[in-house]
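Researcher: Re-running this chain for the archive, since the previous output was lost when a drive failed. Same request as before.
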Amino acid sequence: MYTSLTPEFVTEYNVGAEKLRIWQVTRATSAAPFYFKALIADIENERKEFKDGGIRENNPSGAAWSEFMSLYGAGQEPALLLSVGTGRPNMERDGFAETWPGPVGHWSLTKKIAET
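Model: Regenerated structure tokens:
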């Protein structure tokens, strides 16, 4: 919900999502383009489209910051904004470089980069 304190750069995400059922929220989070269709829901007599959050924000901390700003304005700071990430990458050889197409895929530097 926008307030008079909300900065212009803030994007309000998923307005009306709190009215969705848990199965709808779960379904919407799997709605990645090219794989599954977006969830269309009727929210207060308006059709809204919900889809996977990774489309806009692969790291949702930016969306959390924007939501905080929309609620409390630019003059406030959250007590804590924690992004724990997804862990360390697996540095073992996974075979990805072997599938790299074309002659560039056979260069040792390309293989090294593709494997990590």
